[in-house]
Amino acid sequence: MSSPEPRRITYRAAVIEALAEEMRRDPAVILLGEDIGRAGGVFRQTEGLFEEFGAARVMDTPISEAGAFGIAVGAAMAGLKPVFEVMFADFMTLVMDQLVNQAAKVAYMSGGAMSVPLVLRTTMGTGASLGPQHSQSPYAWACHVPGLKVLAPSDAGDAKGLMIAAIRDPNPVLVFEDRLLHTRPGQVGEGPLPIGRAAVKRPGRDVTIVAVGRMVALALDAAGMLATDGIEAEVVDPRSLVPLDAEALAASVRRTHRALVVDGGARSYGASAEIAATLSDIAFDWLDAPVGRLAGSDTPIPLARSLEPLAQPDAARIAVAARRLVRGG
């Protein structure tokens, strides 16, 4: 029997589809978050789920992220599979104690006798002029905590497949969704995608661009610009930051001999630094130039529409950085 043909739906619809499929498959899956119930989410990111599954499984929480997330951790330890939504990734600060000192450590502290099969879903990124408290991409915070898995899907197909995998994982998984990707259509398949496996989004031979989250779309645009100059850029999407598919990234560098890492988070101590260091460690003998980095600025995200774009990489700057790696100057 042939597999179903891929369908094109939006990123947001893909995640909703993943949640609905897993809730139908497993009655232990529940959703918790602010305004996710009858309202369907402030970004329409849970639309239709309350109507199908009801208030017992799609639960609006008070505006008390720390307390509500503590309930989710306890529910996971008791046998449920909560998907907890933090409306903006910036608000992760409000759940950090429960996330870092409880959810991430329960399996280790119990010798594997207990686990926390919990998903923290959140949105991130600039582009809507929401200011410094609603526009960050702070996935590097979670990457620094042993015991957490961290995903950043860049398209609809990955968003669906990785959400399914995250819900089925016995450990706490964080899924970072860029809001500007929510309305972008893409092809989706069926079933989970493996956590910890990178994807080559565009093959090339002259330079590897490793991009995270929305930066993948920008890197693909940059690769199109570079192609007009005769430079073939390979775009690689880690998809999973923890665990990181370092071997896939190194395999790309062995083909291209140059690497640029593009990250929407702040540059200092961020994901771009860790990936660049990893490539320098394991692919040094194949590199013809130092690993390049292009990341968000080390400043609060500006509120002004004229300034906000300057705090993030864009396709043109990615193309310039990649061209410099290939041709020097």
Terminal CA distance reads 55 Å
Note poorly predicted spans: none
Secondary-structure content class: alpha/beta
The average pLDDT score comes to: 95
Topology pattern, helix = H, strand = E: EHEHEHEHHEHEHEEEEHEEHEHEH
Adjacency order of strands in the biggest sheet: 3-2-4-5-7-6-12
Number of domains: 2
Give the full name of the CATH homologous superfamily of the largest domain: Thiamin diphosphate (ThDP)-binding fold, Pyr/PP domains
* Oligomer kind: single chain
The top-level CATH class of the largest domain is Alpha Beta
Number of helices: 11
Q: Give the tally of β-strands.
A: 14
Instruction: Kindly report the CATH topology of the largest domain.
Output: Rossmann fold
Q: Which second-level CATH architecture of the largest domain applies?
A: 3-Layer(aba) Sandwich
Major sheet: 7 strands, mixed
Strand content: 15-25%
Shape: globular
Residue share in helix:
25-40%
Q: Quick summary of this structure?
A:
34% of the residues lie in helices and 20% in strands. The chain is built from 11 helices and 14 strands. Helix 1 runs parallel beside helix 7, helix 8 (215-227) packs across helix 11 (315-327) and helix 9 packs across helix 10.
